[in-house]
């Protein structure tokens, strides 16, 4: 990277390519990066999320997201322009969704700065199951077999079929374009930047040392990874097939309209509640047809890399075009999640959501109303002991989880309102104390006693 002018590095994803690992690694080493001249833009990473949502108009009619994101891109750009670091880093995988118009707006807003883009790319066969799970925890309702069928179709004709399906409103095809269609991302960013400012980082395979990805990223940032040794605090973990299928059915029952409401499902239920089951549950595995299509797509990506003029970091051999299906646990049978597996996951989810509701009741409601609320909530539930007597135990379990989820969302909204009121009261008390101190200082200068000054300020 040139040092003639300040540099901005936009790490645009793609999704499920180690982005969470890299972001948390950067956060863990933020001060050490600053010592090497790299500023991670914004005071908190949440500001980067809001900025990209603003740039790409991703509020999705959610008033909470709209409030946070309105004007956020311009505010972040202003902060970037105000830093004296040699380079600023923005890492937010939603930028991989950008079309040419949004990419042009981003680069134009950074005029006068040297903009570089980093696209992280991973073996397609390795990420398809993870992408399905991400779509599910984000509110999706597409089954695993249907998802793989749409992904296979989307890869045809160099991704043009996927683009057409996405325009037709097929959710899984849109996810393909946002996360797997690396050639599209390369076309978008090379249309607004010189090719040598677009860096494609090939994520090392599973046999490589874990730090190898960080070393390659550090190479792009021109920093010494040996001085950046703090481990990331959090990395994304996948769900087992039964847990993911349970969440999919819950999404179908809930049909949440606002992305901010999905946090209860994504974080509290899926990550914190069902996540611990991953070691005991079987995973979603590729079928032979999807596996072959993924290898062909890797070949297409490698061809585009060779002809595009972008700067490649890492080894393109980590995008295999030939591989042993056994290494990927390819499954020709594709047995769906059984009732007993779903009920086991539902029991875990039920316990998680009940604990969440008990905690939120304490945060959201006055003491005298808590027992009545929990009693009313319990009266709406069949409980795990009642599921097995039903004609469809899984459907009844999902109803219970939906009831608990809706309750948690409602309580969280009330708790947030209560926290806002508490902050306003605290601010008023602080302002009153400051006013009293100012009155005391003025009184002291006039020779009036402190008690008289306090009485005067209250009056």
From TrEMBL:
Please list where the region (Disordered) is annotated.
420-459
Instruction: Report the transmembrane regions from the record.
Output: none
InterPro entries recorded: P-loop_NTPase (IPR027417)
Q: Where is the composition biased (Low complexity)?
A: 448-459
Compositionally biased region (Basic and acidic residues):
437-447
SUPFAM superfamilies in the record: P-loop containing nucleoside triphosphate hydrolases (SSF52540)
According to the UniProt entry, where is the signal peptide? none
- Amino acid composition bias (Basic residues), ranges on this chain: 420-436
The protein's name is Sulfotransferase family protein
Species whose genome carries this gene: Nocardioides thalensis
């Amino acid at each position: 990277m040139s040092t003639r002018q300040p540099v901005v590095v936009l790490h645009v994803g793609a999704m499920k390519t180690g982005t969470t690992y890299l972001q948390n690694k950067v956060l863990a080493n933020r001060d050490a990066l600053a010592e090497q001249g790299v500023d991670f833009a914004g005071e908190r990473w949440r500001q980067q999320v809001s900025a990209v949502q603003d740039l790409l108009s991703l509020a999705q009619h959610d008033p909470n997201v709209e409030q946070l994101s309105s004007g956020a891109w311009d505010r972040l750009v202003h902060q970037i322009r105000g830093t004296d670091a040699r380079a600023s880093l923005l890492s937010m995988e939603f930028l991989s969704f950008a079309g040419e118009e949004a990419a042009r707006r981003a680069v134009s807003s950074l005029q006068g700065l040297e903009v570089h883009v980093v696209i992280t790319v991973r073996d397609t066969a390795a990420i398809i199951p993870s992408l399905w799970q991400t779509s599910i925890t984000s509110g999706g309702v597409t089954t695993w077999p249907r998802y793989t069928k749409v992904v296979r179709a989307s890869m045809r004709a160099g991704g043009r079929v996927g683009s057409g399906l996405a325009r037709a409103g097929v959710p899984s095809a849109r996810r393909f374009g946002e996360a797997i269609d690396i050639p599209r991302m390369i076309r978008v960013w090379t249309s607004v930047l010189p090719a040598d400012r677009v860096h494609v980082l090939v994520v090392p395979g599973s046999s490589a040392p874990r730090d190898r990805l960080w070393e390659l990223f550090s190479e792009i940032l021109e920093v010494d990874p040996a001085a950046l040794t703090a481990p990331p605090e959090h990395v994304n973990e996948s769900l087992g097939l039964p847990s993911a299928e349970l969440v999919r059915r819950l999404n179908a029952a809930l049909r949440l309209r606002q992305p901010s409401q999905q946090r209860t499902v994504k974080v509290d239920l899926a990550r914190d509640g069902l996540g611990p089951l991953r070691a005991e549950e079987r995973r979603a595995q590729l079928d032979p047809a999807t596996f072959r299509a993924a290898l062909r797509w890797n070949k297409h990506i490698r061809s585009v890399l060779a002809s595009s003029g972008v700067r490649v970091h890492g080894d393109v051999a980590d995008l295999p075009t030939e591989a042993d299906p056994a290494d990927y646990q390819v499954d020709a049978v594709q047995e769906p999640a059984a009732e007993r597996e779903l009920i086991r996951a539902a029991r875990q989810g039920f316990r998680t959501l009940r604990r969440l509701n008990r905690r939120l009741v304490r945060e959201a409601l006055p003491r005298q109303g808590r027992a009545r609320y929990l009693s009313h909530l319990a009266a709406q539930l069949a409980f795990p002991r009642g599921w097995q007597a039903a004609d469809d135990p899984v459907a009844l379990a999902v109803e219970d989880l939906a009831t608990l989820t809706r309750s948690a969302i409602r309580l969280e909204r009330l708790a947030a309102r209560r926290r806002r009121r508490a902050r306003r009261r605290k601010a008023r008390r602080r302002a009153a104390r400051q006013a009293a101190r100012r009155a005391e200082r003025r009184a002291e200068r006039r020779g009036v006693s402190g008690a008289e000054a306090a009485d005067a300020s209250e009056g």
